[in-house]
Each structure stands twice: as C-alpha cells, then as structure tokens.
Amino acid sequence: MKAILKLVAQRIALGLLLLLAVSVVIFAGTQILPGDVAQSILGQSATPQALENLRRELGLNDPAYIRYFRWLAGIVQGDLGTALSNGQDIATQLGKRLGNTLFLAGVAAIVSVPLAILLGLLAVRYRNRWPDKLISAVTLASISLPEFFIGYLLIYFVAVQLGWFTSVSTVYEGMTIGQRLNAVALPAATLTLVVLAHMMRMTRAAILNVMQSAYIETAELKGISAFDIIRKHAFPNAIAPIVNVVMLNLAYLVVGVVVVEVVFVYPGMGQYLVDHVAKRDVPVVQACGLIFAAVYISLNIIADVVAIISNPRLRHPK
Amino acid sequence: MADKDKGLLLDIRNLRMEATAYPPDGPPHDIVIVDDVSLTLKRGKVLGLIGESGAGKSTIGLSSMGYGRGGVRITGGEVILNGRDILKGGSRQLRKLRGKEVCYVAQSAAAAFNPAHRLMDQVIEAALVHGVASREEARKRAVVLFEKLGLPDPGGIGERYPHQVSGGQLQRAMTAMALCPEPDLIVFDEPTTALDVTTQIDVLAAIKEAIRETGVAALYITHDLAVVAQVSDDIMVLRNGQTVEVGETAQIIHEPREDYTRALVSVRSIEHKEKKPAPKPLLSVDGVTAAYGGRGGVAVLKNVSLQLSPGQTLAVVGESGSGKSTLARVITGLLPPYEGEVHFAGRQLAPALAQRSRDDLRELQMIYQMADVAMNPRQTVRNIIGRPLEFYFGMRGAEKERRLAELLDEIEMGEGFADRYPAELSGGQKQRVCIARALAAKPQLIICDEVTSALDPLVADGILKLLLNLQKIENVAYLFITHDLATVRAIADSIAVMYQGEVVRYGTKSEVLSPPFDDYTDLLLSSVPEMEIGWLEKAIASRRMESAGN
User: Fold this and answer.
1) Of these four, A184, B334, B441, B502, which has the most CB atoms within 10 Å of its CB?
2) A222: which chain B residues are within 8 Å (Cβ-Cβ)?
3) Å from A245 to nearest chain B CA?
C-alpha cells in the first residue's frame, strides 16, 4: 500500500510540475502573438499618450518574466485576472461556463464510457462475426464524420423532423436537472458518437491481446461461459490500456468540445474561448488554456493511478 | 478409490484431429495432428502419454475435454466419457463437462493462473460455476487440498495472488484447482517439466499421493519417461500423432517392443571419458562477485572461482536462480563484476564487453537455450553463419562459400540448408545452425547456456554427440550451463555445482559425482528421476529418514 501511495504522490508531483511548464508555454505563446492589447482596447484612433497610460496601468511595460510571475501569483491565489474586453472578473465568468462544460462532458462520459466498453466486450465475444463487424462499422463511420456534421444531422432529424429535443441547447440558472438533461441531449449524443469508436476499438484490441494468455485457456477448460471469461478473466488484465484511452477521450470531451458548443449554441468554455480569441482578450485566453491543461493533466494522472492500482503486483507486493 | 466403480471411464476410438497450416509459400492446407488413436482408461487409473514434441500428446489429452488448442479440430472418431460421446453434445454440453467431470493441469502454472485474481477464487471457481459445492464448502475443500498437496499455510495461501507464491507452489495450487470440483478425470500436461529438479520430486510425490487418495483417473502427459514411470499404471508411446506402443508401465520400461520405445528408454547412453585437467587453464575465473544494479545491488555471484582446461568441458550445474547464467554474462563481459578477475589464455580479460578487443570477442562464443530467438528470422542460414566469417576474418566470395560448406558439413547438415530461413528448420537443426555460427569464429571457448533444455531427448542427444565430436576435431572448450544432471554425466570433464550464487562443489566429474556429498549436491543428485518403478517412493522415504535423523 505504501508503495502505491508513493507512486501516486510521484504522479501528482509530476503533474504539478508539468502544469507549471505548461503555464510558461501558454504565457510565452500569448506574448508572441502579434498585436498590442492596449491598442485593441482603445482602438485605432487612440492617442499615443492614452496608449502609454493604459500600458502603464496594465503593467504591459514591465519585463515579461515579471508579468509572468505576477500572473502566476494571481492564479495560485485563485485570481485569474480581469477580462480586457469587458472588465469583468475572469474567475466568476469562467466558473459558470466551466460548470456547463463539465456537465455536458459528464453526461457524454456517463453514456459513452460504459457503452464503449460494453460494445468492446461484445465485439470480442463475437469477434469476426457479424455483431463485431457491425459494431466496428458503425463506430468507425461515426468517428469518420466531422462532429459538426453529426451535430447538424441530429438537429435535422431528431430536433426538426421528430421534434424530440430542441436544436438550441441554452441553459440558464433555475433550470431543473431534467430540463438541463433535455437541453444537452443532442450535444451529448454528438460527443458520444465522436468518442465511442476510439474507446471501443481499444477495449477490443486490449482484451483480444489478453485472450491469447494461457490463463484464458485455463478458464475455458473450467467450463466458464465465453462472456464470463471476457468479463472476469480478460477485462481485469486489460484495464490499464483501456483506462488510458478512456481518459484521453474524457479530456477531449472537456477541451475539444468547441465546435459542438458552437453548433448547439451551448454556453460552455469552448464558446467563451472562441469569443475572446476573436477579441484578442489575452488574459481570458491564458486562463482558458491553463484550465484546459489542468483538466488534461489531471485526467491523465487519474489514468496512471488507475492503471497502477489495477496491477496486483503493485497492489500486493511480495 | 476402493469403493468407486472400476468400470470404463474414458474410451477414445479412432480419434483424428487436424489443423490448417498456412505455409508462407503455397496455399493453406489441412495437416493431420492425431491419426487414428484409440485408448481406454478405467476409473482410478493413470495412463501416461509419452512422446516428443509434436507427437500429439497434449492434443490427445485435451480431446478428452472436447478442446482443440490453437485451431486444432477433432475431425473423426469418438470420445466416450462416462458412457456418452462428448463430441455429439455441442459446446454447451462440453462446457458442462469441462471443470466438472474433467479438469486440466497445465505445464506452466505461472502462466495458467490469472494474475488479477486471488488463488482461492481461481481454485474454487469451477466448483462454483458448475454448482458442485457452495462457496463455503468449496473453500473448505480447497484448504484441505492445499494441506494434502503440502502447501505452506494452507489456510492463508489462498488469499495470495499468483505472483506472491513460487513456481512449485503454483503447480501444487493448480493441482488443487483441478481436484476441487472432484472430477472423474484429470489431464496433467507436463506438470513438473518447468520446475527445478529438486522441486519436481516433491510436486510429483504430492500429485501421486493426491491421485491415490482421491481415486481420480488421470492422463499424465510428459516427454520424460523416468517421470511417467513413477506415476502411471500404463504408458502409451506416441510419435507423429500415431500410437507406437501401449502397455503396462513395467513392460514399456523393461521390455519395450518397438524400436522407437527402445530408443526413448536408452536415451542418454553417451559414454564420455573424463580428461585430466591440463596444467595451464584456458579460462580462469578468480574470486568473482557480481550484482545487478551495481555495487549496492543484491549479489548474484559470490566469490566464484573456476578453471577450465583447453579442449575440455566444464559443466556448471544448479537450479534456476543459482547464478549460472550470470556467470556466463560475467565471462562474456555483459556484466562487469565488481570484484575478481577473468583470465583467458594467459591474459586478463577486460571486465566490460566494450573494452575487449575483437580477438577476445572471437575467442569466446555463445550458444543459447532458445535457438529460435537467437537467430534473425529474416536471414538465411548462409547469412547467419556467414556473418562471423566476414566480421572476424573478412572472408568473401568463394572463400566464404567454401568455409560455409565446411561448417554445414561439420554440423551434419547439407549445403542445401544454406538458403533456408530459421522458420524452415526444426528445433534441433536451429540449434545446429547456432553451433555452426559459434564455430565459424574459430573460438577456443564456447559457452553453452542450457542448449539442450528446449529440445526433445532424442534430438538433445544428437546435439550432445555433435558437440563432443566437434570438441575432438576443433579442440574447443565448453562451459556448459545446465540444470540437467544426465547431460552433465554425458559430457563433462569437470563440474561446478552452484547454489544461490556460490560454487558449493567443484572438481573433476568423478570427484564431484562420488560420495561423500555435501547436502546440496546430495539433494540434487537424489532428485533426478530414475527409470525405475518405485524410485519416487524410495527417494521420498530416504529423504524423510534423513530429515528425521537430523
């Protein structure tokens, strides 16, 4: 147990270090971007004096590393700065949006992960027979289509023709959970279709790999049914690769939903980011980038930790 | 056993099994794995199936469970178990019988146990799935079996994971797993082959005792006649998927009717007179201590000193983990020792491989256990053997061809083999090619690391004879690493017995193999199965006497 705690602590420490490195990259990246924040705030007609005053006020004249540490110090205290475009506190604005995005991603994940794993198990059970081929064909077709296209297809058929759900996924405060679920149904379905194939294929491949092992033959010779062999004997030994792909896809659900949010006009992080990139609102872009990186890194840490815990050699050392 | 029905349990009639071969050149075609084999087994009896690899013994054993491994299909005949033909029932019926009426013990228990589950859950699984016993009952039964099979801490060992117990213990646990649902028949598929000889004897005794006590019938599959002679009532000798001979154990061992059986019984009949050590050794290992992971690591070799005369054979014997292969790594420079020196032909060898001259490298060649993986599968025999000729002697063209033909001739293979790929060679031929590759460098010393362990006895015999012959011609010395004492007797001039990284006994063959013995050598020697009915009981009894005496 002690060994595991040590490994987990190591992973977390590494993750934090990585996040710090990412913050440097994000900051450097936004510095390289052309354009002047003061100029974009005041517009083309601003006087040089006004620009100079604003630059001093925003601290834009300080050397980059000082601005970086000032920014970092703010983040560590939970202050993401203020948006240049509207002067509002980024943390409060982001909080709501992040909640919305996580809600959408969560719904998509709750549907897609068990579904993908189940489909993967079924594909192994009926490998090279029609259920396997059907599952592969459908999931691969859905991953091959661009997500905005799937989104519009769903809007056309499910929202317009059938009228089951609304085509615009507006959410606002005071909605019940049922209303919220109704609102995100279509974007969540789109996301599910997008991430399903990857996870399902990996589940299939990882389990098929394990199915070659001698202990699978032992289980077969005990007279255990085919599906129980896959579920009880193969799956536990295939967790590590599966979890890694699942987490990559979950990360994608959080950071890669920009297009889907735009298609469904969903007030999430992605839309917020796109809006502010257009406005050259550097602090917002930086904050969004950092949050996406944090989500990505923490999900990968979770994947590592689950993989470690699923290994009995590490869980129960000699 | 006494109160059980003595009637017929298993009746296999005219069994035929086929598989589809996919040759690299040419269309796929069916090949016959088992051809018209019939056998009968009465309740409570043990039938030994013996033969070389490819003889179809495992395939026949598994047919009693209606199972074909790796695409092998049953295409003819009947398998009648408990009075009904199991091949007629379909997969659902087969599943009901597997793990309930017939259970299986695999060669490598280490691979046959699922690493993700506790031993207990796996041992009782079949009994639960088939509703033979409740969880509580099955657990109680398992603990009793663990105790019977001589596992330490029978009450608690079930809570461990497979990686937490040793290979010998796993093999016992696997036997318990097979016994737990109280089947009528157990198929033992080389259950002790992967074990060290000193462990094998105990596991063998435990299996025999368990068979006797529970009255279960068994098919005992092995390539080792001496082992099967200890446990079986009858023996069936197989070759190329066909029956050679069936008979009572005593008859097969003492009066074999067929030539092939006689060859199996008389295997390891090589006579080799030991040579006196020369005054000047070729190889001298002086006080070597080595560890993996540097000075701080656990020492795998402790103060090892050995000498080997030119043109002679030093056998290094020991169980797995005794440090034999590590010694080879030190001598070849793969693992620099942190104490001690290696001298070769009067000069000191640099500790690390990278510091040695090309001539040092040439003089010291290696042959490995797995000829399969020691050769590049994408190169022809010509390239494999030709490489050292180019590398060490810069040979090209006709000169190289001439030498190649010579070498192929020396390993008793024709020039026709030069353009074959390793996949187109048999196990014995592959090992011969490896020998030729080593010889191509004209070395003074060849380190042979378990070179015959993966081969069938008759093939191994051929390799040993070849090696002895080559020694006479080329005057090459062998450092022969093995765990097999019969091999040692056949070829060694001197012997070093290793145990836990130390040389516990060292001398000429006659010295080492003559009493008085130290405890470990005695244990090692007395553990080697002899082709004699009742040997196992005697060996176990004398061992008990000794431990009682102590």
Assistant:
1) A184
2) 98-99, 103, 125-126, 129
3) 21
Nearest C-alpha neighbor of A121 from the set A1, A14, A232: A232
CA distances for B135 relative to B131, B140, B159, B175, B331, angstroms: 9, 9, 14, 19, 55
**Res. A161: pLDDT tops 50:** yes
Give the domain extent around A119: 90-280
> Where is pLDDT greater, at A147 or B17?
B17
Predicted local distance difference test score (pLDDT) of residue B550 = 55
Respond yes or no on whether the N-terminal peptide bond of residue B377 is cis (omega within 30° of 0): no
Minimum Cα–Cα distance from A212: chain B residue = B70
How many residue pairs from chains A and B have C-beta atoms closer than 8 A? Answer: 77
Give contacts of B95 with chain A, Cβ < 8 Å. 223-225
What's the mean pLDDT in B329-340?
Answer: 89
* Total number of domains constituting chain A: 1
H and E: helices and strands count for chain B: 20, 20
Which of residues 130 through 159 in chain B touch A, CB cutoff 8 A? 130
What tokens does B255 get? 């009066």
Lowest mean pLDDT among A169-183, A185-199, B154-168, B389-403: A169-183
The tokens of A120 are what?
A: 């993967």
Give chain A positions within 8 Å (CB) of B98: 220-223
Q: Is residue A176 domain-resident? A: yes
Tokens 């079996």, located at residue: B145
CB nearest B126 (choices: A213, A223, A310): A223
Residues shown for chain B: 550
In a domain, A75, yes or no: no
**Nearest by Cα to A235 from A132, A117, A154, A65:** A117
CATH of the domain at A133: 1.10.3720.10
Do B94 and A215 count as a contact with CB atoms less than 8 A apart? no
Calculate how close chain B gets to A212, using CA atoms only, in Å.
Answer: 10
Q: Please report the domains of chain B, with CATH numbers, ordered by start residue.
A: 8-265 (3.40.50.300), 283-377+443-514 (3.40.50.300)
Model confidence over A105-146: pLDDT tens digits? Answer: 889 899 999 999 999 999 988 888 899 999 988 888 888 888
- Is A25 within a domain? no
- CB-nearest partner of A215 from B103, B111, B129: B111
Backbone φ and ψ of B261, nearest 5°: -65, -40
Which residue type is seen at A163?
Answer: G
Is A318 close to B115, i.e. CB distance below 8 A?
no
- A60 is written with which tokens? 């834009």
For residue B102, which of B74, B119, B118, B79 has the smallest C-alpha distance?
B79
Contact of A72 with A28, CB cutoff 8 Å? no
Partner residue facing A313 (CB), from B96, B117, B163: B163
Cα–Cα distance for residue pair B409/B391, rounded to 1 Å? 21
C-alpha–C-alpha distance, residues B409 and B402, integer Å: 11
Integer Cα distance of B451 and B459 in angstroms: 11
Cβ–Cβ gap A223/B95 under 8 Å: yes
* pLDDT at res. B461: 85
Nearest to B97 by CA among B107, B87, B108: B87
CB atoms B98 and A312 under 8 Å: no
- What tens digit of pLDDT does each residue of B289-324 get? 988 876 667 788 899 999 999 999 999 998 877 888
Indicate the SS3 state at residue B105.
strand
Contact between A214 and B98 using a beta-carbon 8 Å cutoff: no
**B65 contact residues in A (CB cutoff 8 A):** 221
Instruction: Measure the CA–CA gap between A234 and A229, rounded to whole angstroms.
Output: 6
Say if A99 falls within a structural domain.
yes
Tell me how far apart the alpha carbons of residues B111 and B171 are, in angstroms, rounded to a whole number.
10
